[in-house]
Amino acid sequence: MKRTLLLGVAVVLTSFVVVVAARSSIGKQDDGPRCESDDGTKGTWSHSQSDNQGGPNEWGELADGTGKVLYPDCAATTQQSPIAIPARTEVAKDAFALDNQHLKWLPAAPVKDVINNGHTWQANFAPGSKMLVDSKEYELVQVHFHSPSEHTLEGRSYPLEIHFVHVGPQGARPFASVVAVMAEEDAVDNPEFAKIWSSFNACPQKTPTAVSNVTLDLTKLLPEDRGYHRYDGSLTAPPCTASVRFHMLSHPIKVSAAQVKAFTRALGPTNRPIQPIVLGTEIEYATQN
Ligand SMILES: [Zn+2]
């Protein structure tokens, strides 16, 4: 009896903390935080699967007041992302290993700020972490998340997909390079994510929240086996710009179910549906060595 009462108090306290932590939250619902009415923070598009809500099926048709289509690339016939990564693909001849030679991430990458932009949680990095693509340096600018996963690996979806976004030099093709990692649920919090998870707002915000003295060892967010699939696709959210090279790790890492839940409570589903594979798109496999 006492134990039940204590547990009840703990639950009430936890709920209170969650509500207080949710800036601009005016209440708590089981389906997520109730945020102030949309002030334009989210923009015109969403991940909604319902009609006329600006969801993925409508991204390519959304227009401004003058009738100008906002995100024409979302309806483009060039390869869009995400895709269903097939089980067997050809082994790439020129593929590199995701080792220290090519993934030059700082051992302690400083997080500059974090934002809930209404579509995802995103952590922006201070400069210094890079990736070599076609012998060119691409700068790691941010990491963000999708739940459920956007890609599927050999037919399997995951509770979370992590995108490390690198931007190439002016005029480079591909213009961006993404290292994508799947995460499956575990009982234990992922310690690297634990360093930033509580900094993210439950409600959308216009300007990022500055973060001080937080560094991430990003290699801890990669699986031991760094085999990956590679293909050229697009941004998975508007403006859906093409010429994004994906390096999709073949093995997942682990995050806690509670960490995934905190993210989905704040944002709901954040995945673009699988896009058709365009004839001629090469999906190649690279082993870890
Ligand atoms: Zn993404």
UniProtKB/TrEMBL annotation:
It comes from the Bacteria. Residues 27-61 are annotated as: Disordered. Residues 1-21 form the signal peptide. Its EC number is 4.2.1.1. It is an enzyme of class 4 (lyase). Its cofactor is Zn(2+). The keyword Membrane does not apply. Residues 28-41 have a biased composition (Basic and acidic residues). Keywords: Lyase, Metal-binding, Signal, Zinc. InterPro entries: Alpha_CA_prokaryot-like (IPR041891), CA_dom (IPR001148), CA_dom_sf (IPR036398), Carbonic_anhydrase_a-class (IPR023561), Carbonic_anhydrase_a-class_CS (IPR018338). Residues 43-55 have a biased composition (Polar residues). Residues 43-289 form the Alpha-carbonic anhydrase domain. It catalyses: hydrogencarbonate + H(+) = CO2 + H2O. Reversible hydration of carbon dioxide. PANTHER family: CARBONIC ANHYDRASE (PTHR18952). Belongs to the alpha-carbonic anhydrase family. This is Carbonic anhydrase. It comes from Pendulispora brunnea.
